[in-house]
Specification:
Keywords (chain B): ATP-binding, Ligase, Nucleotide-binding, Protein biosynthesis, Transferase
Order of helices and strands of chain B: HHHEE
Radius of gyration of chain A: 30 Å
Structural class of chain A: alpha+beta
Oligomer: heterodimer
Number of domains of chain A: 3
Helix content of chain B: 25-40%
Subunit structure (chain B): Heterotrimer of A, B and C subunits.
Structural class of chain B: mainly alpha
Mean pLDDT of chain B: 90
Mean pLDDT of chain A: 92
Largest interface: A-B, 53 and 35 residues
Protein name (chain B): Aspartyl/glutamyl-tRNA(Asn/Gln) amidotransferase subunit C
Largest sheet of chain A: 10 strands, mixed
Number of helices of chain B: 3
Helix content of chain A: 40-55%
CATH class of one domain in chain B: Mainly Alpha
Shape of chain B: flat
Low-confidence stretches of chain B: none
Low-confidence stretches of chain A: none
GO molecular function, one term (chain B): glutaminyl-tRNA synthase (glutamine-hydrolyzing) activity
CATH topology of one domain in chain B: Histone, subunit A
Catalytic activity (chain B): L-aspartyl-tRNA(Asn) + L-glutamine + ATP + H2O = L-asparaginyl-tRNA(Asn) + L-glutamate + ADP + phosphate + 2 H(+); L-glutamyl-tRNA(Gln) + L-glutamine + ATP + H2O = L-glutaminyl-tRNA(Gln) + L-glutamate + ADP + phosphate + H(+)
Distance between the termini of chain A: 65 Å
Distance between the termini of chain B: 34 Å
Chain lengths: 475, 95
């Protein structure tokens, strides 16, 4: 039987505020245990939550970027469960009236664009951390993370393959960083993904029973976990079994998912509006102010790059993968007036080198002005593509400008016809055999001759010119 | 609506309240009385009325995102039953 995969993702986006959602306690990562846990996070009697304005504003930012509805009245609710890293006995979250509803996120799968619908995004607090290593047979609790502001972003079950799920997660990841609302650091848990996965026979309308894979903190694990889960569900169904609704965990060591709790053990969270917090009301003016402060969004920038610089839609999508890359490209394209060349170098050599060195574009050793210098020398034919590579290498490892490197290493391409003709004649005289073969119809022999000329010029002759002159002389 | 003994036991478990078998009947009666009252309220026609999240018609005041709290770990942990390396210790929990 042919099966169709249905995936929806819930992403916990940690907002990059200075303080917690309900207290003025610092959220800085990596502090000594419990040094950033105030009476509010510890749930001391009598404390009350005091809402952080930045959380509301960052949520609105995301909502506007996704084209969502901003609920101008939204309500906090208590989600009740008992766990030692949640001292209050409930998590403050949003249930019936979240701050953000609806919206779409465009994703790029291969070279194809697809729109994924959003269900909602709501504000909530994070819990603390339980450390199960042995503390004299007990569990250690660190409440530094408790009260850290999160946006839980819930998608519709719109994805049909692990690749689409990863593309969606990547697009959301780059958007929240683009908007400056999340640092995107997945190792530190700033962006955590839960995946709801089900399968159904092709053509069937109703969804199959889903299982939820919790807490995936890398795109690679997300893909592996979903792939494993899909295969497990298909195998189970084809063996005549049933998939029961459950929550599962992914084990990166074995590459398998395993059951955490079944539907019978599912929590009954008994949500109700939190009487400690009044409804959040958002004025039109506040939304408009935030809208006016928004950076140009990736989709708009992508369209502009295609329009203004003549780059392909695919290249533009890569260039707008992060705001830093987009800004870098734009600076080079503007200054050099060579959009396509700029796109080729940024998506090609620059991306490959950064990837090799595990660096981000913000740490690129070649600043935009220096790449511009290189591109200008390619555009005006001073450099052949081979020489350009050589200059690029030198740019990467030095602080010099492209012109200084060309000067220092004598890398100017020779386009002087007289000089090239002389070298061509020498090559022809030195290789009668190649000449004979070429005249006998062996086209390849020309390359041998051209190679000799390039060698004689130390790679500096303009290759197109060399070919032309050779053909002329041998005609 | 009438709660069964099973319902009462489940609610007690969720709320982590220890209710003995002897108490269940009495607690069940009390809860049923409360539900009776709620049923009366639910009989009122509320069509077109927006649900109220808070009895006062005021909005949440928002605080600026500025750090105001300092590290008080020592004071807080002075009243904790057990601590180690800055962590609060609790009976082992593995879900």
């Amino acid at each position: 039987m042919k099966w169709e995969v249905v995936i929806g993702l819930e992403v916990h986006v940690q907002l990059n505020t200075a303080t917690k959602i309900f207290s003025g306690t610092s959220t800085a990562f990596g502090a000594e245990p419990n040094t950033q846990a105030s009476a509010v996070e510890l749930a001391f009697p009598g404390v009350l939550p005091v809402m952080n304005k930045a959380v509301v504003e960052k949520a609105i930012r995301l909502g506007l970027a996704l084209g969502s509805k901003i609920n101008q009245k939204n309500v906090f609710a208590r989600k009740n469960y008992f766990y030692p890293d949640l001292p209050k006995g409930y998590q403050i979250s949003q249930m019936e009236l979240p701050i953000v509803e609806g919206g779409v996120l465009p994703i790029l799968v291969g070279e194809e664009e697809k729109l994924v619908k959003l269900t909602r995004a709501h504000m909530e607090e994070d819990a603390g951390k339980s450390l199960h290593e042995d503390f004299s047979g007990m569990t250690g609790i660190d409440l530094n993370r408790a009260g850290t502001p999160l946006l839980e972003v819930v998608s519709e079950p719109d994805m049909r393959s692990p690749e689409e799920a990863v593309a969606y997660a990547r697009a959301l990841h780059s958007l929240v960083m683009w908007l400056g609302i999340c640092d995107g650091n997945m190792q530190e848990g700033s962006f955590r993904v839960d995946a709801n996965v089900s399968v159904r026979p092709f053509g069937q309308q109703e969804y199959g029973t889903r299982r939820e894979i919790k807490n995936l903190n890398s795109f690679r694990f997300l893909e592996q976990a979903i792939k494993y889960e899909i295969q497990w569900q298909i195998d189970t169904l084809e063996d005549g079994g049933r998939v029961e609704q459950a929550t599962v965990l992914f084990d990166p060591d074995s590459g398998e998912t395993r059951m955490m709790r079944s539907k019978e053990d599912a929590h009954d969270y008994r949500y109700f509006p939190d009487p400690d917090l009044l409804p959040v009301r958002i004025a039109d003016e506040q939304i408009e102010r935030i809208r006016s402060e928004m950076p140009e969004l990736p989709a708009a920038m992508k369209a502009r790059f295609v329009e203004a610089f003549g780059v392909s839609s695919y290249d533009a999508a890569l260039l707008t993968g992060s705001r830093a890359t987009a800004e870098y490209f734009e600076a080079v394209a503007q200054a050099s007036g060579q959009g396509k060349l700029a796109a080729n170098w940024v998506n090609g050599e620059i991306a490959a080198r950064l990837n090799r060195d595990g660096k981000d574009i913000s740490a690129c050793p070649i600043a935009a002005e220096r790449l511009t210098g290189l591109i200008q020398r390619i555009a005006d034919n001073t450099l052949s593509s081979k020489l350009a590579k050589q200059v690029f290498d030198a740019l990467w490892d030095s602080e010099l400008s492209a012109d200084a490197i060309i000067e220092r290493d004598g890398l100017k391409q020779v386009s002087d016809v007289g000089a090239i003709e002389k070298m061509v004649e020498e090559a022809i005289a030195a290789s009668p055999k190649a000449v004979e073969e070429y005249r006998a119809g062996k086209e390849k022999a020309l390359n041998a001759l051209a190679g000799q000329v390039m060698k004689a010029s130390k790679g500096k002759a303009n290759p197109a010119q060399v070919q032309d002159i050779l053909k002329q002389k041998l005609a | 609506m009438s709660l069964t003994h099973q319902d009462v036991a489940r609610i007690a478990k969720l709320a982590r309240i220890n209710v003995s078998d002897e108490e269940i009947a009495a607690v069940g009666n009390q809860l049923n009385n409360i539900f009776g009252l709620i049923e009366k309220m639910q009989a009122v026609n509320t069509d077109g009325i927006e649900p109220m999240a808070h009895p006062q018609d005021v909005s949440l005041r928002l605080r600026e995102d500025i750090v105001t709290q300092t590290n008080q770990r020592e004071a807080f942990q002075a009243v904790a039953p057990q601590v180690e390396k800055g962590l609060f210790l609790v009976p082992k929990v593995i879900e």
